[in-house]
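Worked example 2:
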Amino acid sequence: QVQLVESGGGLVQAGGSLRLSCAASGRTFSTYAMGWFRQALGKDREFVAAINWIGGSTNYADSVKGRFAISRDNAKNTVYLQMNSLKPEDTAVYYCAALNPHRYGLGYSSDLPHEYDYWGQGTQVTVSS
């Protein structure tokens, strides 16, 4: 069982930056791939970024490439999402998620929400114009 708690959301002006953190419990955190997703009001949940267990592979949604960066610190059981050059359209609730490698193997990461096994409660990010 893995429990995830996001933090770092808030209100920021367009062009500003925020860093989200996701603290995980569980001894096997370091083997899980991690992802960030977001859901804006009235819209479906969408993929933002993902990272594999060792951090050697990352992928991003086209809408955030070059502006967002995902990273992880397995010693601290934490994954981060650095968000720069924020835009009003980035406003959403941001969720982190953990993917158990037992089905897809170590090294795997995913942009598909249904492949993730555990989810945090979300943190609100609001970007004002």
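The CA atoms of residues 45 and 67 lie 19 Å apart. The chain is about 0% helix and 45% strand.
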